[in-house]
C-alpha cells in the first residue's frame, strides 16, 4: 500500500514545507506551520493541470489570439469593475465584511442572468428558504434561477455535470469541504484544495465560477493567500453595514484593469448602481456648508 505524503503548510500564506520549522520563509510568520496529509485528488490534478489535458509545447507566436467573449450582467458598475463583464471559464472571488451585501448583489445578478443563461446558486451557509425570502423581498424574478444547499464539492461536481450551468456561485468557499481531505471546513487545506477542484472544473467546462469569501478582522481575505493566486479576478465589496453606500474594488483582474471602483447604493430593493458618484460628495459638501452657515 502506497504511503500517504505529509507536508507542513503555513496557515497564513499557504506555503508548503517538507518538514516542520518555526518560521515561514515566505511570509515570515512564526509558529504557523501545520501538518497535513496530501490526498490522491491533488496528485491527479497536478498530472492533468487545470484544463484537464497537457498542452503541447509551442512558440509564443503560434498561440491563437482570440477576443475573450464577455457575459454582461444587469449591473453596469459590476461589469465595469470586471473589465466589461464575466469571461467564460474564469474564476471570480468576491470578498467583504459581513453585512456588506455580497449575497444581495450576487442574488440580484444571478436572477437577471438566469433569464437568458443556465445559472446555479450553491449556498453552504444559508437555507434555501432564506435565499428565497431575500429574493422575494428584493422583488426579483425567481422562477429561472436554480439553487442548491450543499457543502460537499464531490456532490456539487455531480450536480454540475447534470445541470451544466453557464454561471455557478459558491457561497461561500470557507464552508466547502472534500471527502478526500481529513480536516475541518475552513482550514487552510480544505479552502485551498476545494477551491482548486472547483476552479479546475470551471476551466474544463468553460463555466463562470463566482466564489464568495470571508474577511478577517483586519479586513484581509480569510484563509490561505495562495487562494488569491488561483483565481482570475478578486473583488472586494466594502461599506458599513449601517451605511447607505457600498464600493466594489478590483484587487486583481486578469481580464481588465485593477483598482477599478464601482459605487452602489443600498435600497429596499437591493444594491443599485450609482451612475454619478461625484454628485454624492457634492451634495454632502452643500449640506455641510449650510450647516456651518
Descriptive tags:
disordered C terminus, alpha/beta, 9-stranded mixed beta sheet, 293 residues, 8 helices, Rossmann fold, 30% helix, 14 strands, 3-stranded antiparallel beta sheet, 2 domains
Into how many domains do the coordinates divide? Answer: 2
Which strand order does the major sheet show? 8-7-9-10-6-11-12-13-14
First CA to last CA: what distance? 83 Å
Low-pLDDT segments, ≥5 res: 287-293
Largest sheet: 9 strands, mixed
Q: What is the oligomer described by this structure?
A: single chain
Number of helices: 8
CATH topology of the largest domain: Rossmann fold
Q: What percent strand?
A: 15-25%
Task: Give the structural class.
Answer: alpha/beta
How much is the radius of gyration in Å? 21 Å
CATH level 1 class label of the largest domain = Alpha Beta
Would you identify the CATH architecture of the largest domain?
3-Layer(aba) Sandwich
Order of helices and strands: EEEHEHEEHEHEHEHEHEEEEH
CATH superfamily membership of the largest domain, which one? Answer: P-loop containing nucleotide triphosphate hydrolases
* Total DSSP E strands: 14
* Mean pLDDT level: 84
Amino acid at each position: 500500500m502506497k504511503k500517504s505524503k505529509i507536508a507542513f503548510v503555513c496557515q497564513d500564506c499557504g506555503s508548503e514545507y517538507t518538514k516542520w520549522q518555526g518560521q515561514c520563509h515566505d511570509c515570515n510568520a512564526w509558529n504557523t506551520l501545520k501538518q497535513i496529509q496530501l490526498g490522491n485528488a491533488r496528485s491527479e490534478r497536478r498530472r492533468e493541470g487545470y484544463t484537464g489535458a497537457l498542452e503541447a509545447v509551442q512558440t509564443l507566436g503560434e498561440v491563437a489570439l482570440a477576443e475573450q467573449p464577455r457575459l454582461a450582467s444587469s449591473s453596469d458598475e459590476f461589469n465595469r469593475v470586471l473589465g466589461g463583464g464575466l469571461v467564460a471559464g474564469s474564476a471570480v472571488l468576491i470578498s467583504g465584511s459581513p453585512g456588506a451585501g455580497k449575497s444581495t448583489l450576487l442574488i440580484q445578478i444571478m436572477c437577471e442572468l438566469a433569464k437568458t443563461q443556465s445559472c446555479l446558486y450553491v449556498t453552504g451557509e444559508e437555507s434555501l428558504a432564506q435565499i428565497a425570502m431575500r429574493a422575494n423581498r428584493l422583488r426579483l424574478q425567481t422562477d429561472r434561477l436554480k439553487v442548491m444547499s450543499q457543502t460537499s464539492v464531490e456532490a456539487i461536481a455531480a450536480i454540475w455535470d447534470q445541470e451544466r450551468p453557464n454561471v455557478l456561485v459558491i457561497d461561500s468557499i470557507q464552508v466547502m469541504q472534500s471527502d478526500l481531505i481529513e480536516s475541518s471546513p475552513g482550514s487552510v487545506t480544505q479552502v485551498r484544495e476545494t477551491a482548486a477542484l472547483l476552479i479546475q472544473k470551471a476551466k474544463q467546462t468553460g463555466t463562470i465560477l463566482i466564489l464568495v469569501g470571508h474577511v478577517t478582522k483586519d479586513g484581509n481575505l480569510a484563509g490561505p493567500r495562495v487562494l488569491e493566486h488561483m483565481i482570475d479576478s478578486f473583488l472586494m465589496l466594502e461599506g458599513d453595514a449601517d451605511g447607505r453606500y457600498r464600493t466594489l474594488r478590483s484587487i486583481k483582474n486578469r481580464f481588465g484593469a485593477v483598482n477599478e471602483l464601482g459605487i452602489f447604493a443600498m435600497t429596499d430593493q437591493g444594491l443599485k448602481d450609482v451612475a454619478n458618484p461625484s454628485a454624492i460628495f457634492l451634495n454632502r459638501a452643500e449640506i455641510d456648508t449650510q450647516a456651518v452657515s
